[in-house]
């Protein structure tokens, strides 16, 4: 995987940021997560086993959605 960047819709506060960070950190193979609520950016670093769909599901389970 290396590093991938996504845009998360609906994050408005530090609580949102913490929910997304916690959810994505739990995805297998993820080694680093950075969330910027000012622009909704989610940067994920991980090994080659990280499934982008797993990132999408984790964000959804936290109550948010990735932009297409």
From TrEMBL:
Residues 2-67 form the HMA domain. InterPro entries: HMA_dom, HMA_dom_sf. This is Heavy-metal-associated domain-containing protein. It comes from Saccharopolyspora cebuensis. The lineage of its organism: Bacteria, Bacillati, Actinomycetota, Actinomycetes, Pseudonocardiales.
